[in-house]
Amino acid sequence: MTATGGPNRPTGMVGFVFVWAGQILSVLASSATSFALTIWAYQTYGSATALGVVSTAFIIPFLLLSPIAGVLVDRHSRKLMMMVSDFVAVIATVGILAVHGLGSLQMWHLYAAAAITGLGTTFQWPAYSAAITTMLPKKHYSRANGMMALVESGPAVFAPILAGALYPILGLTGILVLDVCTFFVAIGALLLVHIPPPPRTVEGEAAKGGMLREAVYGFRYIFERKSLLHLLLFFLALNFVIGLAFNVFDPYILERTGSNSAHLGYVRSAAAIGGVAGGLLVSLWGGFRRRMKTIFLGEALTGCTALVFFGLARSLPFWIVAAGLGALTGPVVNGASQAIWQAKVAPDLQGRVFSARRMIAFAIGPITPVIAGALADYVTEPAMTSPTWLSRTFGWLVGTSPGSGMALQYVLAGVLYMAIVVSVFLFVPSIRNLEDRLPDHDEMATVDADASS
User: Fold this and answer.
1) Quick one: 11 and 106 in the same domain?
2) Cβ count within 10 A of residue 206
3) In this structure, is residue 213 part of a structural domain?
4) Are residues 242 and 139 in the same domain?
5) CB of 136 closer than 8 Å to CB of 16
6) What pLDDT was estimated at residue 446?
């Protein structure tokens, strides 16, 4: 892969770094805007429920339109789709800036802006993931995915600090203007680089048709390839199990510390820093050559540290260590998983397949928090804080004070998590040997190759 493409435009890793730098700057500013808007909304309305609706408004377009976005990413230039996602986000931010400048900003404006931003994000993830495949050789997939993980985790550490420092000086208007400016920096970086189009494969040409047919094809592609389907179900099961613990993270720490919000902040910061460290690690290292080895080892460490150790800990230093180590493995595992999908799926199908994959992965998102909360409120907490067989059996392990039930959820979830990882490694060869069972996309027949043979 050369360092320049087209008329002296950067491509390869050099071009990717340009795009990545523009994105991390833009996402940092957007995260600061989100933090500042949260401060404004809570100071103005004092409603936590209203803030929750903002998150719901953001995710609805993703759930409804992901398959269509995937088709458009495959049909059109990935660079164009990436720019469209940024322009859509600009529209939402400029709208908020305008109504705030007129002194008319209300909560429903935030709901509308969140929905518009969610629409742009629906195009962003499959477009960026597919662009990595055509910009970089396979050996750099994991490293590039680690860098993209920094785009997600880095702002969680620095955006609150940035917004907290700038809000008293610039106010909401100044932060919104800064956000708009960084969007154009990100778009400028895209204009500067060359993103090669995907090669046309026989599979990709056979999948062409109407919008609905192509949208459904992403799901069909996954279900017809047992190894990819089993890998996705493996992560779906792990996400469900870990969700039974992670969704009581805040109340668990608050109960254990007597509602000490400062301690909760320290633990949350440790997790965010761990995520950044994990992104840096995989960006520099790239993971093992056998990516499934990276996944199995990383998930085993997650079960040990983020779940079992975290649930057994009873003081701030141990929670900080467990949260940091647990979060560190996330970008490493996700980078390896993403690299497998990028290597195995034909580039001209990745928009559809990646969108379908993400929809399936998000399927349990709405229900896991409800189940986790109900378990804590009606099962584990009452059972562990009163004389029951559960408290007599596990009291020595996690205690019987408030928070012990949620601690038990963490420990049992961790044991089940590691049991799933070990069982899949030992008994499911379709996942363990996935890298050998499925050919990489560069081994597949292309239209041009067929035409010349």
Assistant:
1) yes
2) 10
3) no
4) no
5) yes
6) 62
Residue-number span of the structural domain to which 161 is assigned: 1-197
- Are residues 62 and 190 located together in one domain of the fold? yes
Give residue-wise pLDDT tens across range 284-300.
888 888 899 999 999 99
Residue 202 lies inside a defined structural domain of this protein: no
Residue 199: predicted pLDDT: 83
Q: In this structure, what are the phi and psi dihedrals at residue 400, rounded to the nearest 5 degrees?
A: -130, 15
339 and 388 in a single domain? The answer is yes
For residues 322 and 311, is the Cβ–Cβ distance under 8 A?
no
Q: What is the pLDDT of residues 62-120, one digit of tens each?
A: 777 888 888 988 888 888 988 988 898 899 999 999 999 888 889 899 889 988 888 88
- What are the backbone dihedrals phi and psi of residue 432, each rounded to the nearest 5 degrees, phi first? -60, -40
Measured CA to CA, the distance from residue 286 to residue 97 in angstroms comes to 40
Overall number of domains in the chain: 2
The residues of the chain scoring below 50 in pLDDT are 1-4, 449-453
